[in-house]
Structures are given as C-alpha cells and as structure tokens.
Amino acid sequence: MTTQTLRIGNAAGFWGDNTDAPRRLANSSELDYLTLEYLAELTLSILAHLKSKNPDAGYVTECPNVVRSLVPAFKANPGLKLVTNGGGMNPAACARAVAAVLAEEGLGEVRVAACSGDNVLTDMSEHVAAGERFTHFETGDDLIDDGIPRVNIASANAYLGAAGIVEALAAGAQIVLTGRIADASLVTGPAIHEFGWDWDDWAKLGGATVAGHLIECGAQSTGGIYSQWSEQLDLANLGYPIAEMNADGSCVITKPPGTGGCVNTQTVAEQLVYEIGDPARYMTPDVVADFTNVTLQQQGEDRVFVSGGDGTAAPDTYKVSMAYKDGYAGSGMIVVAGRGAVAKATQCGELIRQRVREAGFELAHYNYELLGAGGSLAGMNLGSGEPWEVVLRVAARDPNRAAIDRMLRELAPLVTSGPPGVTGYTGARSKSHPVLAYWPSTIHRDRLRHNVEVKAATEWTQE
Q1: Which residues, other chains included, contact 300 with Cβ-Cβ below 8 Å and sequence gap of 6+?
Q2: Is the pLDDT of residue 3 over 70?
Q3: CA quadruple 452, 67, 217, 197: dihedral positive or negative?
Q4: Do residues 279 and 211 both lie within one domain?
Q5: CATH code assigned at 427
Q6: Does the model's pTM come out above 0.90?
Q7: DSSP 8-state assignment for residue 177
Q8: 355 and 294 within one domain
Q9: Residue ranges making up the domain that contains 100
Q10: In what order do the strands lie in the sheet with 242-246?
Q11: pLDDT in tens, 94-104
Q12: Number of domains composing the chain
C-alpha cells in the first residue's frame, strides 16, 4: 500500500451518543474512515430481544438515519468509508436498511458489507459438546452444571477482531456493518487494510489498538468528562476525535479545527487508562497490546503524538459476553423538601419497604438513597449544613414482577400519607422491567469464523 497517513475519526462511543456528531465530524474533516462504536456489554441483549419479536430488527436503529445524514459527505468525499458495529445482532438486516437509504439518495452503487459470526448462542449446544465450559471470569462456575445450564441465557456474543473488516474492505466495501467486535478493531481493521500489515506485526497492531482505544469512547479524549474541567471549556460544540495513523503504528490524536473541547496529553492519558485492566496485557482478538511504554507528546494546539505501543501474539480464545435473565427491577424518585428533609426522606424510604412487606412481598433486593445528601457520594464528607431538599430514589430487584410493581405503586401515596414536603410526583408511574445479568466467559477462537457478505446497495434492496 502507498498510504502514508490514515485519518480515522470516531463519532460514537455508545448507542445514544450525540446523533449529530457523525455528520459534523465527516463534514468538518477530510477523513479516510469514520467509525461508530455503539455496543456496550448488555446492548446486544436488548437487540436480541428486539430481534426475537421481529426477524428484521436487532440492529442499532440509528444506523440508517446516520447514513442518511452522511450522504452529503459521501458525495463530497467519495473515498470516505464508514465502519461500525451497529449491525448488532442482525448485520444483514442493518445492511438492507442502510442500502435502502443509499438507493433513495442516488448512491445505489455503494458497496455495503455485513460482517457476522459472533453469535455463539445459535450453536451453544455444539460448543458445549465440543468441550467449551463457558467458565465465569469471576466466580469460576461453569455455565453447564450436570448437563443443565445454571442460568437462562438471553444472548451470547464473542468479541471478534478485525479480520472481517479487512476482508470486507478488500472486497471493495465502502460501508462495513459488523456485529460484536472489539472496540479497537474498528481502527485496527482499516489500518491493516490500508498499510498492508501482516497479522503477526504485533508491534504495529499494538500501536493501532492504542489508537483505537483512544478514540473508541468518542469525546472522552477531546475534553468530555475531563478531570480539569472549567467553565471556559466549550462543550456545547465539542469536537470528536481523529486518529492520524502512521504506518509504523504511531498516531496523532486530534479533533476538527474550530470545535470545542481540547486535546492535550492529559485528556489523552485519561482515556489511555480508561477500562484497560492490566496495561501490559490489554487483550484484544487481534493482539495482546502493551501500553506500558506509550509516550504522549504535545505537538501544538489540539494535537498529541502517541507512540510506543507494542504487542504480542493474540490470545487463543475470544471473550464471550453473555447475558441471562435474572428477575425484574424498578426504580422511582420523589422530592422531599423543607426542614428535616433528610429525616423525612429516610422515613419515606423505610415506609415503602414496610408497606410492600405488609402487602405480602419481601423484596429480594431493596435500596434507597438520598441524592443531595450524599447518596451518590457514599463515604465522602460533604461538610456541615443539612440540605432543605433531597431527591429520594428507591430501587428494587426481585424474581417476582408483582413485588416490583407493588413497590413502584407506593411512591405516590406518600404525597398525602407520608411526612410533609413530599412532591415531584407528577408524570407516569415508573414501570418494572426484566433484568439481564452479565456472564463473561471465553471460547476457543478456532470454533468461530467471520462471515462477510459484500454487495452494492441496489443488490441488498432486492432481497
């Protein structure tokens, strides 16, 4: 490859991030790639639930609308490519929906890829028969006990790596829609494709993983949740990050000129150590990255040069994110105001517990906290002076949905049958909802394969 510097921007750190960010980032920068990272550990469980009700659902519903917003950028910059894990549980359905938008906008020739292979649940019995134990990371329990699953699994997806992305790009895809892959692989894949790296160029793959990690959470590396926040930091027009990748695996982290926020060694360092576990062994499906020798150098306003990323051979297993059904939960809030607000709110929290018990339900898990009186800052000294208003938040979890529903019905009566000063009760009553708990495990990587389908948008719409 002849690529010297690869400009990769990321405009989503989770499903629910700023929906205008992709358009703004693509329009304000001459990007080679735009990435969107949508999937948290339990997001796929939500998508699996949606797909169970509708076989054409199960993907991040923002994807088609985001692609529509990017049409002017695609037309102005025909070389721009989009890579996202927004395919969720149904990359093919996502591809069809995205293709319909492209066809409507006169971009029917754009090649769209659907990359799957991460869904472990569909062949779970075969994997178990082959010896997979799906041992829980923390408890050490095997998923199957004497031939019976310990829990009712709702979704099980392996964190695949960059291979599917590389295959899709090699086949001419301009838009790549994947299921569950490692977040950093959204950057590693394009880098491997463009620079022609070998799959055992561990140092380069480690460097690309550092870059991918630095931009995967969106604006967290450009001033979002910055520990040195001040009122002067413009967050209204916050710029999203760009990694200018070099062929040796180093990069520059920056953002579009004229946008808010900031990029400095502190913002980048804070993201570097975010959710990494062992910095010497940051395990991804592509490489075990080593962050311990990474150096950050300020190279001017909003430009930080990142080098020193390293890596060793990829692990022989994929991480598997599983979610299982674990009862029901619900929460609600009321405001308690006036003299003695803390004591009154505390009594309200206890009243709810007592009244639910008298109705015949013993909640398995019940908790209340006083926001404004240290409820969200347990153990911290907030100084003297008692607040004159607090927000009482109650939450509960129980195998019995009726118990949760009864708890939620006990908030409103406090307005007239509790201590004085209870307010904030308007609006619809909160609803109970199913709880999905997390079962993290692994699977041998030779049991799974990337499945890649690449077609022009018009071909997808004909299905």
Answers
A1: none
A2: no
A3: positive
A4: yes
A5: 3.30.70
A6: yes
A7: E
A8: no
A9: 5-321+441-461
A10: 295-298, 303-307, 251-254, 242-246, 5-10, 33-36, 81-84, 175-178, 111-116, 451-456
A11: 999 999 999 99
A12: 2
